């Protein structure tokens, strides 16, 4: 149970449930002879996080990964000479006397030593930016979390089946099954806490020692979906208590020799105490203890001046900076809350008084330091970048729905860059893959005989293909991929399970509200209107399925995607193997066990036919990853190419993935290396696409 935090709960202003209204299809007809942009390349995806291990750096590629995708990053560059080069494809307690608070002069400025510290790299010697290390730590946590959710769901299902079996046996004997037995074996609801333990065992916390002041890589406004995420990052090291502090062991460290301990480092405010007052830049914070922890904010006993309460009092005397995090109710979070980092404060006063219920409570006045980014929370509500309620509210609207009604949810397009604004053009929208003549898709694989959802059948044959467990867990009726895999086997046309089976996740169509928008420097891009959780499906990359030999001579087509699942499974050409790469190849398809060619045999050309996926931009620090999926057949050379969320993606953030280009892989006919700058803007940008 979430407890021992402080201040009034602030409701997240929800994104409205109704989808876009008044959508009208508008699809410009593409010129017949024009192949506009060419997507080519295999995506690296996110580095696979080994189960219960630290995230590992992706291997550097040593060879060809497919043709690169010049795409929109090229649009703002000087035009390069047209060369007939072969382009590679794209292929993470004492009770003081009661007194009143003393008046305080205005807020202090942020000390110069701390200005901008959150954006700097620290001295961990990893060669990575602080932002990237934060992202990798969260990915490791989510990997553990999803594995543990999967374990918990299996255990819970086994418990339910056991109780049902015992109940049936008792009913047969004329006895009633006991309700207390079901309660005794109810499923645990805290796989996030188990994930903390796993990361602690592997020493994979971002910071194992407590830190004063800002945490490098964490900025004002950053959000977290559980207290556990904050624990593994070191921003707040206790999953329950509202006050985090340095204990007496820290007084032995030379850098803290002038401080009094214990000393507070961070507080979390989430509406547990009825005596709190939050005025954003000024906080009246109630100390810890004496709360009934039942969520009704009532004090049932007096607090004592020890532990966190004493730490906050000492922090006033020490003058040290304290991180403040506010919790907000959020229905789309698995914990029911979102936690926002709101910057640095100082304790400027403390006193003791009798609370609303007549019990002794300790009070602390904190003031926010000046010179920080604006607050993302207020006393009234939690403000964030919010999506419009309907299409007509969109500035620069150029198309109500680029899918023409094909997708589950309309996808509007906006353009506030061009004058006059124009919609995306030069292609025909299709939500499904088109097959070139001469290519036959196998359809002879056997299906499972499960009833209902395969998650309820421990003997599911499709689960066995995936290594005994289904690749997905379900969250609010949306499947989430537990981890990137070499290949995912989904239930198909020959399976007897229902169409809503969790193992049909990639077949459910668009699940989130998206928008295609014109960027300032990268052409068209795609952003979300909803919060998307790690492992959630985004879309399939569709176009025309072709043999690679058909497109090798084409120019000006940056929308070609190599299907290199087989090459990845075999670890060819510097590709990084994923979970499941060591599966017995004949069990997939007889042809797959032969020597795999260095280059993929098939590709997807979205140059003239495709979906919104063709507009998703490259980033050297992406929030999506690529996953090969098999449904109605087991030929990995013809696998579906899917995009999944690698991180928690907040509303109005752009979707992006790594195109996986190899540097210096494009050579002109005269032997010169063709170079294309990267415009992704990520902190760890490689500066070049190829």
TrEMBL record:
**InterPro entries documented for this protein:** H3-K9-MeTrfase_plant, H3K9_HMTase_SUVAR3-9, Post-SET_dom, Pre-SET_dom, PUA-like_sf, SET_dom, SET_dom_sf, SRA-YDG_sf
Residue stretches of biased makeup (Basic and acidic residues) = 92-101, 170-191
Name a biological process GO annotation. methylation
Q: Which residue ranges does the record assign to the SET domain?
A: 512-660
Where in the numbering of this chain does the Post-SET domain appear?
A: 674-690
Alphabetically, the GO molecular function entries are: double-stranded DNA binding; histone methyltransferase activity; zinc ion binding
Show the SMART domains listed in the entry. Answer: PostSET, PreSET, SET, SRA
Residues of the region (Disordered) are 46-121, 166-191, 576-597
Recite the UniProt keywords alphabetically: Chromatin regulator, Chromosome, Methyltransferase, Nucleus, S-adenosyl-L-methionine, Transferase
Instruction: Spell out the Gene3D superfamilies in the cross-references.
Output: SET domain (2.170.270.10), SRA-YDG (2.30.280.10)
Report the protein name in the record: Histone-lysine N-methyltransferase
The gene behind this protein is LOC123080386
